[in-house]
Amino acid sequence: MHRASVTVADAGLTPADVLAVARGGARVELAPRALDAMATSRAVVDDLAASPRPVYGVSTGFGALATRHIGPDLRARLQQSLVRSHAAGMGPRVETEVVRGLMLLRLKTLASGRTGVRPEVAQAMADLLNAGITPVVHEYGSLGCSGDLAPLSHCALVLTGEGEAEGPDGTVRPAAGLLAEHGLTPVRLREKEGLALINGTDGMLGMLLMALADLAALFTAADITAAMTLEALLGTDKVLDPALHAIRPHPGQAASAANMLAVLAGSGMTGHHQDQRPRVQDAYSVRCAPQVAGAGRDTLAHAALVADRELAAAVDNPVILEDGRIESNGNFHGAPVAYVLDFLAIAVADLGSIAERRTDRLLDPSRSHGLPAFLADDPGVDSGLMIAQYTQAALVSESKRLAVPASVDSIPSSAMQEDHVSMGWSAARKLRTAVANLTRILAVELVAAARATDMRTQSGDLAPAPATAAVIAALRAAGVPGPDADRFLSPELAVAEEFVRSGALVRAAESATGPLA
């Protein structure tokens, strides 16, 4: 269960904080020291606003228009115009959890005391989150440089009482009415505040943190389904010997092998019942499962390190330093986050690919070592899981396309002032799709491995590992029946997908193994 509230201080947030607010609806509170830090930095901005010296974001235009000096009488309009014009997103709405995550992360940077916004602006954003009001943000509009400009601008626009937002009841309405219903006063922006509200990597970072949480669970699920397939194919668990993995000391590989070995503990099926053509070695998709999943685990660890660094950052331009200087910079460039988002998409595609190869092996009578074709009840009359593998293959193929990196692309913008961009938002969006695909791919492998195990053990001569038996029992109880004549398969695959996504698969296995990595 998520905590009831998350405190935003000048020291930053943890990944758990972000998930608690984005997904769990936790309330947000601003720490007193954060309010003090913002008041101190605001005094710097006020002093600069009174100075005749042009300062970017305070008394100049933006981007390629930064050469124009803006007088005091136009500065409020300057900030509001910035937000209005940059709220130019198009396409489908972005998920509520993504919007809440990016709002919280922007609030974290405001609370750092590096942006120069007034404390009341940060409090207004916290109030918006606590009221359950979610600005409408669109799929397209961010190039991942100068921040996630369009997505953050749609959020900032709602803060000022304009634009559209979804209320706690799920209805999208004009922001002005929603704010009034919840007793919230629209913010009137002052010098630098519009810029500070939109100039960050918050959208791509929030999606990275969610992907890391989802993938940590999915990599454990993948170890379980791989072990179940190895068992159903009467493979050998000798390749999981810790001594073998110690001589190639990648930590992720060792963790995956240990998970698989734990799932297979006590199996009466592994390595003892080969057919008339004994196997010296299992196929790569079975034998190398820990190496592939383990490499993905190590990729997750690297991405988590980058995410932690970004969480500790204050991303804005210009930024106020501890000595009171306000300096332009390029910290808003999304390259560090974009690279790991793309790296994760590669790992996800490969993990899905090896899972699909294992599934196909279970269905092919020439390679399944005695299982019926397509795991059908009466092959020829019944097609069994033939088309479930088609669906799985389609998901794998899409994930391979999504593994093409977004971060190697760049389209210059703002009259060539912003001539190299990260495309980090695009990298994050495609990773979300890839993660959803992986969940479904593993669900198909789970259904196939469970059916194959049931077919192996129907005679009573063979017994699966206790963990496998626990998983199959839980899957059957969830609504995926055992082997029988063909039936409407799509609803069962949907149940299996939720079984994987919800963590029920891992919990079932752990009921026999204890905690898995």
Short summary:
With 517 residues, this protein is mainly alpha-helical. It has 19 helices and nine strands.
Describe this structure as you would to a colleague.
- The chain is mainly alpha-helical and 517 residues long.
- It has two domains: 5-200, Fumarase/aspartase (N-terminal domain) (Fumarase C, Chain B, domain 1, Orthogonal Bundle); 207-513, Fumarase C, Chain A, domain 2 (Up-down Bundle).
- Helices cover 54% and strands 5% of the residues.
- It has 19 helices and nine strands.
- It has helices at residues 15-22, 32-49, 75-86, 96-110, 119-130, 149-159, 175-181, 193-198, 202-232, 242-246, 251-264, 284-287, 289-311, 335-363, 386-402, 424-457, 466-478, 490-501, 504-513, and strands spanning 5-8, 27-30, 90-93, 134-135, 138-140, 164-166, 172-174, 319-320, 326-327.
- A three-stranded antiparallel β-sheet has the order 4-6-7. Strands 1-2 form a two-stranded parallel ribbon.
- Helix 1 links the parallel strand 1 and strand 2 (27-30).
- Helix 9 packs across helix 11, helix 9 (202-232) packs parallel to helix 16 and helix 14 (335-363) packs parallel to helix 16 (424-457).
- The longest helix is centred in the last third of the chain and has 34 residues, at 424-457.
- The mean pLDDT is 95.
